Amino acid sequence: MDAGDFFGRLDQLSAADISRIAILLRDGERTVEGRVGHVRARAEVDRVLRATRRSRPARRSTHEAGLAVMEAARRLGGRVGRDDLTLVARSAEDVARAFEAGPPARAARLHLLLPWSAHGYSSAA
Predict the structure, then answer these.
(1) Which pLDDT does position 125 carry in this prediction?
(2) Domain limits at 19?
(3) The predicted structure's pLDDT at residue 109
(4) Gap between the Cα atoms of 20 and 51, Å rounded
């Protein structure tokens, strides 16, 4: 999966997709290993973005990813809980930043994509 595939599918999320991704995100945060892995992945993406001077484009991608998830929820007409929506939108933003960081952040991107992979968002790329 590349960034275009990821972004192209965000606004097509169903209420069930958002709910299941939120459950997987919460499950990952329940363990110390899960929390530490997430923090390390985000820190690695931040480091790469700074080193490659890609922070500004990453902000744009982050914003677009969050908006796409919000648009999917708007289209669903309130069938998505606010907490789930916020969690999934923030996760989409993290993944977008990781894509923007490029190949040097591949391991971090794969980690951040894990909760999405069960819903057709392959982490193999």
Answers:
(1) 46
(2) 3-117
(3) 94
(4) 34
